[in-house]
Amino acid sequence: MIERKEDARAVASEDHHRAMAALKQHVAEMTDLAVGMVADGTRALLQGDAELARSIATRDAALDRYDLNIEIESIRLVAVMQPEGPDLRTAESILKIANCVDRIGRLGYDLSRFLVPGPESSDADVRERLRRMDEKARAMVGEAIEAFLAGDAARAKAVFPMDEAVDELHRLTQQRLIELLRKGGPESDRRAFELLGARHLERVADNACKIAEKAIYAITGERRTEYLPRRAPAPARPPGPPPSPPPADAKPP
């Protein structure tokens, strides 16, 4: 009788690990799909490629299927196998990570809808900054997911400093595009869509940070406030040169 119970526990443990591995594999596959949508969405936006944009729209259904299947599998795992401790945190985190990945894919889809048919933007600085934002944001997503799959909390925490470079590129791109929009001209529609595109890429990076946050929780049980207190937001800086300082002999009002 004791041997049978031990055998049953061993089988249950094996089934649990197999189910968890399958869930993680599905998260990895969903991430590859979503990141590809962001890469192609950025390219469609920059190049005005309507055919590429249409190909991204066809991937949205597959993204939905991954999201739904991961949700069903996660709930089934918790209900049937009743995991505890790290395994329960992992199951919970998978649900939230899949939600972030779904948002990333939809941001890629929206990027492809911002295109203006025709040649690339005439402003080289805007093109280059948007490309760099795309590359850096996708790299952040990849690092956060790999850290989660590898159970590496230190690697996940290294994602947060990467967000600063994306934020700075977003600020510079936004500043340049506002300057161009104020001048008007035939490319104003494209400039407006590029402004939206920059914001979407910044949100991809934000979702990568959220994935890293959930990975750390799954691995260590730490909440964000325990290792990365939130900073007060910096005041918005208007575009253009800073105001000139008052003369030395100026009197206060």
Describe the structure.
The chain is an all-alpha fold and 253 residues long. Helix content is 79%, strand content 0%. Helix 2 runs antiparallel to helix 4 (85-113). The protein is globular.
Shape verdict: globular
Radius of gyration: 23 Å
Q: Oligomeric form of this entry?
A: single chain
Poorly predicted residue ranges: 5-11
Biggest sheet statistics: none
Proportion of strand residues: under 5%
First-residue to last-residue Cα separation: 91 Å
Q: State the order of secondary-structure elements, H for helix, E for strand.
A: HHHHHHHHH
Q: Roughly what percent helix?
A: over 70%
State the helix count. Answer: 9
Give the integer mean of the pLDDT values: 87
Structural class: mainly alpha
- What's the total number of strands? 0
